[in-house]
Design a protein that fits this description.
The complex is a heterodimer. By secondary structure, chain A is α+β, with helices and mostly antiparallel strands. Chain A has 17 helices and 19 strands. Chain A is globular, with a radius of gyration of 24 Å. The longest helix of chain B has about 35 residues. The chains are: A alpha+beta, B mainly alpha.
Chain lengths: ~450, ~325
């Protein structure tokens, strides 16, 4: 028996040595120059970065999208019928994208060529183990790259790994009819917002000023306060400090409004909260720029509202801060694989779907590509849904997205949802329970190889 | 898992006596092996093969994304033990096993004994009814349970509300999770085991039962003192398979922690199998993932071995 086992061991040892001998060739070092990209000087490759496969302008490409991106693909195929046979479109759950890349790395084949995903997911495939995205510098002219708002989320360690599709900056949505009826004005600071909550609780109990019950709603308060729950100091260092005064002020605001019952306790799309919005029980809340589409746009009709009732106002700022800082809920991008054989077609596709005028007119997503923003403005400003012109507010907020929107390489939403619900279930205050975030984030950060600091 | 070991032993035993192999390969056993062939092939491809591969890569280094075999030594095993989620997930699964295995077995055996007391149309209809939910697979059951436990849409919403549970998030708490998974598992698996245990009860010789009746046993005494000891081997069999199944809990916590549609107080990584998944697909460390999978295998094998030794399951009377 034991002899047999040893034989097995030897067999495996020999097998593994054979496999280990098949190494991968080292990539050639590209020439580098300094250039201005997205307003900051940085080192970029002067020549297009080499892909890992030989170029072939006739090679087919696989494109991973979600269902709402299908019209964009159709538009590209219509505009470029010659390339239609080369493009294979697959609708995927992009949360699986980083894990799928690892599988393909193991089998050394099968990578998609173009992927639609948020910069936070691109960040996760940009590390050494995934090693997925192609540096787009050189493939896309620097002037064009400069034309994308919030492109900095796509730049990792000086490399342009994606082109922004749309932005999801938070703005204030309010019920204009209700606001007028109650005789209130939209607050401009978080302090005024808190004061309004006391007034509303006293005069009109049963009405709400927002919700706090999942990771996204958490970020809408805490990122807007510059609270360092997940601050990337440098690519390998993560600052988690919930004792920072910026966290304390946000927590006491939330606690105050939970106590006076003007904050609901679920996520934005919970059926109970949906009903409150549709029943005109929600006076205002902070939501991302695309969220107006949920009032009967192409994204579906989660919430219904009368025409000219939905008001949009500037996101709140803290009195002590010079300007508002806003969180973002999504806001995706297009990334190209370094394994692609046909980078020319891949780049043509991602520039088309982010820049095409007819495609973006009437979209509910706020376009990142600056030259098409005026067109988008025309469509959105004439939409009868709104009580006022939302465009100037959304455009201003687009430049105020927090640096905290650069996520570390782990999911923030799940642990933060756990935190909010745990706080409610244990009947604690948010201020009293903030340290749980450190407990939840630290192991995740350490497992990803971050050096966790608290400063 | 239990199946796997038995076959490993069989094979090694066969190899120990190569000189005898011709004697084994006569016409009768040859046909038997022919019938076994499809199963053996599938088992090699999907059971033993991946197992050996897992053993191989548990010593491989994945820090560059491409496996370097035998470069890691036992580093992957240390990574698993040192991960702060290791203790957490094993505490969770331990709690879940402590609740789900005894409760599952006790309820199934009780229901089977009850059904067997009054054989007839009612009993066989009930058996079929119990069996039907087994048609629902893991993910569908998770959806069903979410539906049932959301007070505003559940048909039992009034019951939940009368207990002070107004929202889904009042019900899904860290403390309630093992019970939620127990409900999911029992709903799907119980029917099959009731049928198996009922079959075992049918196998009891009528003479024994008649003798018990003559001696003045009532139905409860028969169930407790005659039937229960006689179906003991089947209960042990159920223990081994339920333990091996439940220790691998994955789908239910993974789906409940989904943040796109469900916003509940469920940790992203709750069970050891999820931790293995997280090692592989969040961190790209397939080596640590394989190491943890092997640790799980050893736990499953160990528990089954102890149970078999302790009860003398394979002893022939």
């Amino acid at each position: 028996m034991s002899k047999q086992i040893w034989k097995c061991f030897w067999l495996m040892a020999v097998l593994s040595m054979v496999l280990a001998a098949c190494g991968s060739p080292a990539p050639a070092a590209p020439a580098v120059v300094t250039q201005m990209v997205a307003g900051t000087p940085m080192v970029v490759t002067a020549t297009p970065a080499a892909t890992q496969s030989p170029y072939n302008d006739n090679a087919p490409i696989t494109v991973w999208i979600d269902q709402p991106r299908q019209p964009a693909m159709d538009a590209f195929l219509k505009a470029n019928p010659a390339d239609a046979s080369l493009i294979k479109t697959v609708v995927v759950d992009r949360e699986q994208f980083p894990s799928k890349v690892l599988l393909f790395n193991n089998t050394n084949q099968g990578w998609p060529d173009v992927v639609f995903a948020e910069p936070r997911l691109v960040a996760r495939v940009a590390d050494a183990a995934h090693n997925f995205p192609l540096d787009l510098t050189g493939w896309v002219p620097a002037d064009t790259i400069n034309n994308y708002s919030a492109e900095s989320n796509c730049i990792f360690d000086g490399k342009v790994y994606c082109l922004r599709n749309d932005l999801a900056q938070f703005v204030t949505y309010y019920n204009a009819t209700l606001l007028q009826q109650f005789g209130y004005t939209v607050p401009t600071t978080w302090e005024d917002y808190q004061a309004l909550s006391d007034k509303l609780a006293k005069d009109h109990p049963g009405y709400y000023l927002g919700t706090f019950g999942d990771g996204w709603s958490f970020l809408s308060f805490f990122e807007a306060s510059n609270c360092p729950t997940h601050q990337l100091v440098d690519p390998t260092t993560l600052n988690i400090n919930v004792t920072d005064p910026n966290c304390v002020r946000a927590a006491s605001l939330v606690d105050h409004m939970i106590a006076n019952k003007t904050l609901y306790n679920t996520d934005f799309f919970n059926t109970d909260f949906d009903k409150l919005i549709t029943d005109n029980k929600v006076l205002m809340f902070e939501g991302p720029a695309w969220m107006w589409g949920s009032f009967g746009g192409a994204a579906g009709d989660w919430w219904t509202t009368a025409n000219h009732q939905l008001g949009v106002a500037a996101p709140f700022k803290w009195a002590a801060d010079p300007a508002p800082v806003v969180a973002a809920m999504g806001g995706a991008a297009w990334t190209v694989s370094r394994h692609t054989q046909n980078p020319k077609l891949a780049v043509a596709l991602i520039t088309f779907v982010t820049e095409d005028k007819t495609l973006w007119t009437g979209s509910e997503n706020f376009p990142s590509y600056k030259p098409i923003q005026p067109l988008w403005q025309q469509a959105v400003s004439s939409n009868p849904l709104f009580a006022n012109d939302p465009y100037p507010i959304m455009a201003a907020a687009a430049d105020e997205i927090s640096p905290l929107d650069n996520w570390p390489r782990f999911d923030l939403i799940s642990p933060l949802t756990q935190f909010t619900q745990d706080t409610y279930q244990k009947k604690l205050t948010v201020s009293g329970n903030l340290s749980e975030i450190t407990t939840l984030f630290t192991p995740l950060a350490q497992a990803e190889g971050y050096n966790v600091v608290s400063k | 898992m239990a199946n796997l070991t038995m076959h490993v032993e069989d094979q090694s035993e066969k190899k120990v006596h190569p000189s005898n192999s011709r004697r084994y390969w006569n016409r009768r056993t040859g046909e038997a092996y022919l019938f076994l062939l499809p199963y053996i092939l599938v088992m090699l491809a999907f059971g033993l093969g991946p197992g050996i591969y897992a053993f191989l890569i548990s010593f491989a280094d994945f820090s560059t994304g491409i496996p370097r075999y035998f470069a890691a030594g036992i580093k992957n095993y240390l990574t698993v033990f040192k991960d702060s989620r290791f203790g957490f997930t094993f505490t969770n699964i331990g709690e879940f096993l402590l609740i789900s295995v005894p409760v599952g077995i006790a309820l199934v055996v009780l229901l089977a004994l009850l059904l067997h007391m009054q054989p007839g149309r009612v009993s066989s209809t009930l058996r079929t009814l119990f069996f039907i939910p087994g048609a629902a697979v893991g993910p569908a059951v998770v959806l069903l349970v979410i539906f049932m436990l959301t007070p505003n849409v559940s048909p039992f919403g009034f019951l939940l509300k009368s207990m002070g549970l107004k929202a889904f998030n009042d019900i899904i708490t860290p403390a309630s999770l093992p019970f939620i998974f127990l409900i999911m598992g029992f709903f799907v698996g119980a029917g099959m085991w009731i049928v198996i245990q009922y079959g075992a009860l049918e196998g009891i010789s009528t003479e024994v039962m008649e003798a018990a009746t003559m001696d003045g046993c009532n139905e409860w005494q028969k169930a407790l003192y005659i039937k229960l000891p006689l179906i003991q081997p089947y209960i042990i069999y159920q223990f081994i398979l339920i333990f091996a199944g439940n220790v691998q809990l994955f789908v239910e916590p993974q789906l409940l922690a989904n943040q796109t549609y469900i916003h509940a107080n469920v940790p992203l990584v709750w069970s050891p199998n999820q931790l293995a998944y997280s090692f592989a697909f969040d961190l790209g460390n397939f080596g640590a993932s394989a190491a943890l999978a092997l640790i799980m295998l050893i736990i499953g094998l160990g528990a089954s071995y102890l149970m078999v030794r302790w009860t003398g399951f394979f002893n022939i009377d």
